[in-house]
Amino acid sequence: MMSAATNPKREQLSSEIAQLNMKPLWERVMRLKPGTAAAPAIWRWQQVQPHLMRSAELITTQEAERRVLMLENPELKGSTFATTTLYAGLQVILPGEIARTHRHAPNALRLIVEGEGAYTAVEGERTTMRPGDFVTTPGWTWHDHGNLGTGPVVWLDGLDTAFANLFGAHFREDYPQESQPVTRKEGDAGARYGSNLLPVDHRQRSIASPLLSYPYDRTREALERLAKNGEPHPSHGHKLRYVNPATGGHAFPTMAVFMQWLPKGYAGRQYRSTDGAIFCVVEGRGSVSIGDTRWDFAPHDVFVVPSWEFYQLKADTDCVLFSYTDRAAQESLGFWREEETV
User: Of 41, 107, 110, 220, which cross-links 135 as Cys (Cβ 3.0–4.6 Å)?
Assistant: First the structure.
């Protein structure tokens, strides 16, 4: 859009109405193109892991409540966000520790990165956390974490905090005790909702998925079968979307969650979409090119692809990538768009 020509009388008008907290539209400074202020970013596990373990030596879960190193986008300093809408952090819990019970309005997800023996408890049911598992914590549900194993356990936290902040609806509450009572046997949610079946008396109480865990072994098996039965997508390889089994929609009302398989030697086409994405490498090695930036990636690395930035994935070995984006919210609002090079 062309700016209006400079005019002393217009400048005087602008000055006068500024005292009334008004501004002429023709002097707009708002963004008039797709994309956001977020930049491509990568956090390499080899560099991050020592600092995460050092944090475990310096502060307890009782002091920190959640021992997390937040992944903040370099162009969003002070925001605590990895993209303009999504939060990402790496959390570590040591044997015998408990991350006390609380609840908050934002939805949260966990991708288990490393270690065995930890659990998440949500609304009275515990679910064991294993590497590669996608674990859900719907908004405003009581949840805590514990480690019954013999070594540290690390997972990636993803939250839609920015949406709650935007609407002024970010509520939070602590539970009276450190741990909530276990009122349901482990696996109850999976038995009710994890087999393409629903209880006959099911009533939708939440717009987030009622499943607490999407086990990695089942996801990986599905990806392997998909890879054997057809050619990979030219930009995504073999990519699956996690769904809410009660609705068939996204697992969260704001966040879309994916797992994809890139076969060895795969070189994808350039692709972009309006949803900013946070990727975590579950298995394998390869590279991602985002605009003019190229990075090699290895297991447990985390990288960000900003909104409406062309990116291209390549696989040096068989790769499995986990990702989450704000696509669910964008689709609901009619904003989402994609583009692929030919």
Answer: 110
Mean pLDDT of all residues in 7-26: 92
Residues 6+ apart with CB under 8 A from 202: 192, 246
CB 332 within 8 A of CB 263: no
**Residue partners of 293: CB distance under 8 A and separation at least 6:** 40
Mean pLDDT of 86-90: 98
Q: What is the pLDDT of residue 224?
A: 96
For tokens 């009334």, name the residue.
Answer: 20
Share above pLDDT 90 across residues of the chain, in percent, rounded to a whole number: 90
Say how many C-beta atoms besides its own lie within 10 A of residue 177's C-beta: 10
Q: Is the dihedral of CA 73, 76, 80, 83 positive or negative?
A: negative
Mean pLDDT of 289-314: 98
d(CA 252, CA 257): 8
Rounded to 5, what percent of the chain is helix, strand, coil?
20, 35, 50
Task: Look up residue 67 and give its amino acid.
Answer: R
pTM metric for this prediction = 0.94
Report which of 277, 272, 315, 314 is spatially closest to residue 291, judged by C-alpha positions. 272
**Residues 309, 326: Cα–Cα separation, whole Å:** 15
Class of residue 186 by CB neighbours under 10 A (exposed 0-12, middle 13-18, buried 19+): middle
Q: Give the chain's length.
A: 342
